[in-house]
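Board notes (copied after class):
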Amino acid sequence: MLWAAPLHALPTVAVDTLAQWLAGAKVSTAAVQRHGIDKCFTAEPVPTSVWQQMQGRTYKAGCPVPKADLRYLKLLHCDMQGRTTLGEMVCHRRIAQKLLHIFRRLYEARYPIACMRLADCYEADDERSMRANNTSAFNYRRVAGTRTVSKHGYGLAVDVNPLFNPCVRTRQGRQVVQPATAERYARRQEKFVGKIDHQDLCYRLFREAGFVWGGDWRSVKDYQHFEFP
């Protein structure tokens, strides 16, 4: 079974679910306080159950990153309705503590993040994960349209609210937006909740931690994307 709750909406649950850490579950502030906030932002070696889930999905044959270099993060985030939600992420150990700091700051600021689950819940299909507005990190894959391994393939990149912050490029004179359902959010002059720009808290925290923002690139604008050099 996949280590995650069903993809439909989940009810607010009690403190014992925090101990189980069912990703996607909604929890009350009181439950978080009883459980302990520090226990809600942790990094650990990838558990066996998660590792099994990753096989043939985000962790494909030929991946150069050993299991020992990956970390499983437990994180809280506020969804688009402001509900406290259990999140999860796999990343490289080099950036694990940085991500714990960033996402804790975002949670404390009640910054809206729609979904935060492993890309394996979407069969490691990047388009499906982005359409679900899923914030995620590790996924061994190549940069779209190239043979270059993405920074996600090393666990050194994070995509945040990807539906609201699409990747936009021009191919043969035509604008291509990924995910394909995000064309309305490609109009960056408009204001909307979850938009990442230079004034956004998410942007500032990632940049302070030494990450590069894809929204600053010239040949392609990847507004969701933060990578560590």
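Comment from the instructor: The first helix runs from residue 15 to 20. The two ends are 34 Å apart (CA to CA).
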